[in-house]
Each structure stands twice: as C-alpha cells, then as structure tokens.
Amino acid sequence: MDSFELNKVIAAILMVVLLIIGLGKIANEIFYVNKPEKPGYKVMVDNKPTDGIAQKIEVVEKIDIAAVMAQGDIISGEKIFKKCAACHSINKDGANKIGPALYNVVGRRVGVLTDYKYSKTLAAYNKEWTFEELNGFLKKPSSYLKGTKMSYAGLRKETDRASIIKYLNKNSDSPRALP
Prior knowledge:
By secondary structure, the protein is mainly alpha-helical.
C-alpha cells in the first residue's frame, strides 16, 4: 500500500468522525428542548389548618363476611387444612406443634393457650378470633399482625379462607352460627 492510499483511508475516517459530530450539532439545534429552572413537578396541596394536631387517617377495608363465608364449604376446608396440619393440630385435646392447637379457635381470645408461647404481638392482641379476624389474618398473617411468628404466606382466595374458617368452626365443642 502506498502513501496515497493510506491518506485516502485516514481522510475517510476523519470525514466520518466530522460527519457524526456535525450531525449531532445539527440535531441538537433542530430538536432543542427548553430545560426547566427547577427539575421536577410542583405538587399543589391544600393547606388547611389542622389546629396543630396531626391527623391520622386510617383506611379500614370493610368486607361483607356473610358473602365471603357463603363461598366456602367444609369439605374443601378439610383439604386445604392439610397445609396447616404441618404446624397446627385440629384434634380435641390435640397437642401444640410449631403453632398452637386450633380446636375451639373460632370465638376464642387470641393468645390464651397457656401451654403455648405466642409472639409478643399475638399475646398483646386483645381480641377474639371472629370470622372477620380469621379472614383478615389468613389472608396474609405477617401483614395483618406485624411481628407474628407465623411465616405462612397466606390464602389469597376468599373461597379458600372461607372454607378453612368453616372447617375450623366445625372443629369446636360449640360451633358458632355462620353470618
């Protein structure tokens, strides 16, 4: 290769580089964007006086427990409970396992079995296991009562939760009337 052809190759490379830079400059001029003085969006908020008191708004999801319970059946609940049987006993006078025994659980106060060591959250939860409480807890235990030891992910389907609750209610000395 002689020096003349080498000059052609170098000139072609330089022309491509200059063409790319030039096109970039031209594109910036054609597609110019005005940048705002302050980046971001301005959010308009009504400044209502609160009398110096912080207001806490709590959103409570109301469900029709009667409609939910109508979806379940005891036979399905018995099948679904097999997942629970690894940690819980359902037999009368059944022993506690990893979790407490669940015989007579519907209507029982939360955290009252003396021979089981509950988490601090459940021991301090001063309510009873109603149909509504069980439905909320079984949906996702860790988010319903933060700090519970129950690591189960929960039952997403309402029909599954209703079936389990009906099965738990049946396994009692005096089953509660369904809503």
